[in-house]
Amino acid sequence: MTSELSNALNPNIAHSRSRPRNHSTYPTPVAEPQPQQSPQLVPQYVPHRSELEGAIAEPSYVRPPPLPVPPPTPSSLDDNALAQILRVLAENRAEAEKEKQRHIAWEKEQEAKYAAQRRDFEEQLTRMREELALVKGSVTAPSPTPSQFHPSAPPSGPITPVSSVPDTHLPPRGIYASPSVPIVPTPTPRSAPLTPVSQHALPPPPPQFIEGSSRYPYGSHTPSTPQSSVFLTPQLSHIPSVSNTPSPMLMAAPSPVMPVMHAPVPHALAPPSSAALSLGKRTTPPSPDSGNGSGDDSDDGNDPDPNGLLPRKRLNGHDKRCLTIQHAMRAHFLKTMKIQSDKDLPESHVEGVFLPDTAPIRFVWEKTTKQSSHNAAMKKRFLADIKAKQKRSYKYVPDRDFAQKTLDSAYEQAYTTLRQKYKAQKDAVIARNLRIKEDQKALKARRNARKKAKLIIRGEARQRLPVFSHATFNGALQPECMSSEESCDEYSDTSLPPGADPSVQVLRIRGLSWRSSRLTRLYSHLDEDEKVDRSLKAKRPQPRRERCLGPPKDGFHLPPKGVSSWMISQRWVREAREAHPDLVEILKGLVVDPPGFNWGEFDLLGLDSEDELESHGHVEIPRSEISYSLAHALAPM
């Protein structure tokens, strides 16, 4: 039984309250219906709770449902994607920068390694060149005998005699000059054999200069003199130890034969002047027979290219290709006139007579191109035809030579030559004068070709001699400094020496009077080196012509611009000032003296001029004027 308080607080208990009846509303007694009670819902199970538990029970809180998360907007999605892209780009940029720095460091390392290898190669190349120069000098010397060596300095190894025959096992000179072939220096043993390479012997004294001579230039240094054997013997007593010489460098030991040479120049070869060098194959002096013809055949494609490219070369004397625009112009004149040679030119055309386009070209030889309208029309037709046949007939001529200005100049030159030949056909006097003029032109071309060949040979010899690499020697290698080589048959008044064979042509060397003795000694050293180098090579089919020394060239000749003061003879300056008082002022504008060269430490070329030779009491060895060929063995020139 529950109490009232418990029932009042329990919401599950339904209270039934009886309402009082109002009898005043209804006066008549009516049977009162029995009220129907609503059915009570009784829970299946109600746990019993005490009043205290119900009074202090905590009210149950209902947790509100979570708010729905709003969907992401499109702007937030774009911001996230952009941030991710920027992050990826930043990472890629950082990786690329790291790779770039690593590649730069690797390139620097490779460049440093290559530079070190290059320096080592240049040092090896210099040593090999010096060894080769000593070997070349020792090959031409006779083999020494054991009695020639000093008794107080016995050799520490076997004595190797030097043979006068070139060793066929020696590699050619080209491998020392080729950068593509690695050169490994051979280590010097402790007990080295007594060979010219390990002795560091000084070279023989320079011979007296006979410029261009292919035989012994001195009378005192002919093979019959015993002085040629002093290449090895005088220096052996001054060498303290043969086994302690690590490199084939020239020793500064005193020598009774010649003073010690001190060259304050580096071993690296400085490039000489552009006119003195020819990096290609060494050209031989052309035969004078190649220039005996007229001046029209003088262009053989050997002229230097103005753009610095190598010109085309003719294969041989039978090569008739047109390599220049001048040759093509002359050949096209013969084609358009339909003649075989310019020795028989057609008759002059009559001015005003119409000439059809199908007929051969004819000219009014008495008039120039501007004086005759017919000649002007023929020129226009000629140039149009040669341009049309450029690719087919003149494919070896450079395309730049077919420019309008170049064609006009070449056309006028060829037409003027044909006019002169036509006049020579009609007049014997004009023909004789033209023949003399062509002979002089051919003579000048032959001499210039000899000068050019001599200049190329001396330039190559200077490259092999590091002692002459200073810039003060650049001015000596110019075409104007070369002496003239004149053939003895070029003058009718030249009488041959008694006993000489007239069928053998000898070139007479005529030097320039302004050249000093130092300059002639320089040429002597270069020619001597070239002669040694030529002796180690195969003989050419056509032997080199003999040379003999002649008188200086006639007339007054000034040195070219760019020469140094040591190249000019002081005696010539004093003698020429009497006739030319302004000579000193003229020479000031021509002389160029490069700095950095001390002649006090360089005595290889001797004293300054002939006056110093006389003041120091030196007697110059007389020059030999004998041709050393078999035909001129006893015929003084």
From TrEMBL:
**From the record, what ranges are coiled-coil?**
82-131
* Coiled coil keyword on record: yes
The annotated regions of Polar residues compositional bias extend over 1-15, 140-150
| Region of interest: Disordered | 1-75, 139-228, 269-316, 531-554
Q: Which residue windows does the record flag with biased composition (Pro residues)? A: 62-74
Q: Where is the composition biased (Low complexity)?
A: 33-47, 269-279
This protein's UniProt keywords: Coiled coil
CDD domains in the record: UDM1_RNF168 (cd22265)
Protein name as annotated: Uncharacterized protein
